[in-house]
Specification:
It is built from eight helices and eight strands; from the N terminus they run E-E-E-H-E-H-H-H-H-E-H-E-H-E-H-E. By secondary structure, the protein is α/β, with parallel strands linked by helices. The strands form three sheets. Strands 6-5-7-8 form a four-stranded parallel β-sheet, sandwiched between helices. Strands 1-2 form a two-stranded antiparallel ribbon. Strands 3-4 form a two-stranded parallel ribbon.
Length: about 270
């Protein structure tokens, strides 16, 4: 957009966030930066110089809506693929089949997309499909596939919760034992807890037993202070039962200690 007022020329550009938190390989430097700006070559060159400090590759487009739509598509596609794998995992469990073996066999085909099932959270994947669907409705277009994974991915909270409770009930006097939930953020090795299904599972498990604590060494301090979360494993290492929800690097090390001490370990996401 160009505007002339009091002999001042200015241009407006746009670039949506494009990162993969916790990924050391595909970091902000390595991911191409999509920048929308409709300007002459001199302005584009100046903008490119700025964004070159952010990313190795800058991809330009003229329309802001097209740049933003590309981001919504990226996240919706991932949400759909994870949702499909979650559904197949549940199907395998009901059919008493080994999910990992089924995926190993499917992965022998060159064009198979090897997505992993899991708890879908964060600020993008659980939100962007709704934005995309809303955009369609504004155009009087009712999308059929865009939100297809939302119900399945949201249901994973209840699926995992039930698995945990069923395993707990098999442990004698489990309500009298000290239980620690391991990991609360929306994905491993990131401190962000927005839309985290692990947090929701933890809150519901607290209603099952009064002896439950949560350990997360990297979750944001604001959440720690408000919810009395343990960040030092030494404070919970004497617990008798450990329930693993998110495997941060530090939690993986803590699990090794728990196994060595022959603690009871519940890993409802072990297939993932």
């Amino acid at each position: 957009i160009r505007n002339k007022k009091k002999n001042i020329n200015f241009f407006i550009g746009y670039s949506s966030e494009r990162i993969n938190p916790g990924d050391k390989i595909h970091n902000i430097k390595n991911i191409p930066k999509v920048v929308s700006i409709n300007a002459n070559q001199r302005i584009i060159s100046l903008v490119k110089k700025v964004y070159k400090n952010v990313s190795k590759k800058v991809v330009f487009t003229k329309k802001i809506n097209e740049a933003e739509l590309s981001k919504l598509i990226e996240n919706t596609q991932r949400d759909l693929n994870i949702g499909l794998m979650n559904e197949i995992m549940i199907l395998c469990e009901k059919a008493n089949l080994d999910f990992n073996e089924v995926i190993r066999l499917a992965n022998t085909k060159w064009n198979f997309l090897n997505f992993k099932p899991g708890l879908v959270g964060g600020h993008c994947l659980p939100v962007d499909p709704y934005y995309l669907s809303y955009f369609g409705k504004k155009l009087k277009f009712d999308t059929k596939i865009t939100l297809a994974a939302r119900k399945t991915n949201n249901s994973m909270e209840q699926f995992v919760l039930i698995k945990i409770i069923l395993k707990l009930k098999k442990i004698k006097n489990y309500k009298k034992k000290q239980i620690t939930i391991m990991g609360l953020t929306y994905k491993s090795n990131v401190p962000d807890y927005r839309n985290s299904l692990a947090v929701d599972i933890y809150k519901k498990l607290k209603k099952v037993s009064n002896n439950i604590k949560a350990y997360d060494p990297i979750i944001e301090n604001s959440f720690v202070e408000k919810n009395n979360i343990v960040t030092n494993f030494n404070e919970v290492k004497k617990s008798e039962i450990f329930i693993i929800l998110v495997k941060h690097k530090q939690i993986t090390e803590a699990i090794k200690f728990a196994k060595k001490e022959k603690k009871i370990i519940i890993d409802p996401l072990s297939l993932i």
